[in-house]
Design a protein that fits this description.
The chain is an alpha/beta fold and 400 residues long. Helix content is 39%, strand content 14%. The chain has two domains: 151 residues, Aspartate Aminotransferase, domain 1; 235 residues, Type I PLP-dependent aspartate aminotransferase-like (Major domain) (Aspartate Aminotransferase, domain 2, 3-Layer(aba) Sandwich). The strands form three sheets. A seven-stranded mixed sheet has the order 2-8-7-6-5-3-4, sandwiched between helices. It has a three-stranded antiparallel sheet with strand order 9-10-12, covered by helices on one side. Strands 1-11 form a two-stranded parallel sheet. Strand 5, helix 6 and strand 6 form a beta-alpha-beta unit. The two termini are 35 Å apart. The C terminus is likely disordered. The structure holds 4'-deoxy-4'-aminopyridoxal-5'-phosphate.
């Protein structure tokens, strides 16, 4: 990586921390046995696996036995939703319109194959969940409600506690895709009310290709990949380097409440400085989700009517990495389904840019963006003045 690059795409992936790199190197060079082997090498690997499981459990306040290691959040989401079909004899999934592409595609696949009925809870204009609609859709036929803890594009937080109550009142389960929240805000599995939680290590300075599904104790959850590992809940030789990397990333974030507070406020201060600076320098900038409680690191906006590709191109030339939404759908000319669900027009949605910060982002980097980006964008925004939204059209709280 070029040291001059400014990486502001941390919702796509994060830099592995030094401890994570060390743990992976150790697993590859030393602890490379198969954790299922009965000999000493196998037992050494097994001990390392036990340690990583406890690190994850301590970080999320769950029991080690509730952790199933997977290849990431995509697989965890699949185990959760596939397993929920038929749970308690029910075959209905309720999910939010803002869920990740993998969850949306799986739900549509299950519906098209007539394996499950699916209903979608809409989003409000401020990116929050339409909770009234959730109330009417969560009925006694529902087997699982699947809603992310924080949206990957807007960063807006979803009402997990309220959804847990609504789901449990109807005998349904709550699955939470917490991939974007974990590592940015504290997450307590025991207190969350969720029955199933998905996460991915590379979103919090761990390695790619490893994650976990947390399954509440007492739920006898079916496997997607059959085998003996992970107590029969996820077959396949464990990815020990990845799992030890995940453990190290979790351990680093097992912070005290004060530790979380200072990390969260430092991130929010930097993000707010970026937003305030851009709003001041480039009138016509619209920030999405700003009036809702949201992740401290995420900034989702459009610069008037300048197309996202044009902005990204300018940023790229400046050595600044950002994205036009979810990394998985960042290429191509399709507008963000999340913004469309919030009622944003197709044309405006095609202008959206996401900056996502991390603990590695510096005030100097934000300053550099604020000094250079307006110089590039102001003339382009002026070209579009006639079609730029008037302040009255902007979502409330945008300038807060
Ligand atoms: N859920 C959410 C909310 C995500 O942001 C992502 C990653 N973009 C995933 C699931 C999938 O994670 P992975 O690709 O690591 O499996």
């Amino acid at each position: 990586m070029n040291p001059d690059w400014i990486y502001l795409d941390n919702n796509a992936t994060t830099a592995p921390s030094t401890g994570v790199v060390g743990a992976i190197a150790l697993a590859l060079s030393q602890t490379w046995g198969n954790a299922s082997s009965s000999h000493a090498m196998g037992q050494e690997a097994k001990q390392a696996l036990v340690m990583a499981r406890s690190q994850v459990a301590r970080f999320l306040n769950c029991k080690p036995a509730e952790v199933i290691f997977t290849s990431g959040a995509t697989e965890a989401n699949h185990i959760a939703l596939r397993g929920a079909v038929g749970f308690n004899g029910r075959h209905k999934i309720v999910l939010s319109a803002g869920e990740h592409a993998g969850v949306q595609k799986l739900a549509r696949h299950l519906r098209d194959r007539q394996l499950a009925a699916v209903d979608w809870i809409g989003l409000n204009a401020d990116g929050s969940l339409n909770i009234d609609q959730a109330r009417s859709l969560i009925t006694p036929e529902v087997s699982v409600v699947s809603v992310m803890a924080a949206n990957n594009e807007t960063g807006v937080l979803m009402p997990i506690g309220e959804l847990a109550r609504l789901a449990h009142e109807q005998g349904a389960l709550l699955h939470v895709d917490a991939t974007q929240l974990i590592g940015k805000l504290p997450f307590d599995f025991a207190k969350s009310g969720a029955d199933l939680v998905s996460l991915s290590a590379h979103k919090f300075h761990g390695p790619k290709g490893v994650g976990a599904l947390i399954v509440r104790q007492g739920l006898n959850w079916p496997a997607l990949f059959m085998g003996t590992q992970e107590r029969g809940r996820r077959g396949g030789t464990e990815n020990l380097p990845g799992i030890l990397g995940l453990g190290a990333a979790a351990e680093k974030l097992s912070l005290s409440p004060e530790g979380w507070l200072s990390q969260t406020s430092a991130l929010a201060r930097l993000r707010d400085a970026l937003e305030q600076g851009l709003l001041a320098a480039l009138p016509g900038t619209v920030i999405y989700g700003a009036s809702s409680p949201r992740l401290p690191n995420t900034c989702y906006l459009r610069f008037g009517h300048v197309h996202a590709d044009v902005v990204l191109n300018k940023l790229d030339r400046m050595g600044v990495m950002a994205s036009s939404g979810a990394a998985c759908s960042a290429s191509g000319n399709e507008p963000s389904p999340v913004l469309l669900a919030m009622g944003v027009s197709r044309e405006d949605a095609l202008c959206a840019i996401r900056f996502s910060l991390s603990g590695h982002t510096t005030a100097q980097q934000i300053q550099t963006v604020l000094e250079r980006l307006p110089l590039e964008l102001a003339p382009l925004m002026a070209e579009h003045t006639s079609s730029v939204s008037s302040p009255s059209e902007l979502p409330t709280g945008v300038f807060a």
